[in-house]
Design brief:
Blueprint: H1 2-11, H2 16-26, E1 31-44, E2 47-54, E3 61-66, E4 69-76, E5 79-86, E6 89-102, H3 111-130
Antiparallel strand pairs: 1-6, 2-5, 3-4, 4-5
């Protein structure tokens, strides 16, 4: 009889996830919304290209620049050299991710529950001893 009573009490307990869900449902103030800021960095590599072709009427060197792009044109004898490159760049990505935190609060005193459990145990022992 006592073993059955103890096993029923142990089996009637809830899983931790169910207890947490019930606690949050009863006390929503324990649940706090927070935001994490995740910073990710992506490096764009440098790209270069070279080419050469003959050109008779260019007698100087030309450098074209705009932002990250550079084009260098140079004539040596009967050949035109063209070099272009795009400087490397770093792209920073920032994402805000919402996260729910739960504040751990001190549990309230349940001394009366221990009194009820002790009373039930005493009653079970009295019933067993009377038989």
């Amino acid at each position: 009889m006592l073993i059955i009573l103890i096993s029923l009490i142990l089996c009637s307990g809830c899983s931790p996830s169910r207890r947490l869900a019930r606690l949050v449902k009863m006390h929503p103030e324990l649940q706090v919304a927070d935001t994490l800021l995740v910073t990710d960095t992506v490096v764009v590599p440098q790209v270069e290209a070279d080419t050469a072709f003959p050109l008779d009427h260019l007698h100087d060197t030309v450098l074209l620049q705009k932002d990250r792009l550079e084009v260098f044109i140079r004539k040596v004898h009967d050949t035109l050299y063209i070099r272009g490159k795009c400087k490397p760049d770093t792209v920073v990505i920032r994402k805000k991710i919402p996260v729910t935190k739960i504040i751990i609060a001190k549990p309230q005193s349940v001394w009366w529950l221990w009194g009820v459990v002790c009373l039930l145990i005493v009653m079970v022992f009295v019933l067993i001893l009377k038989k």
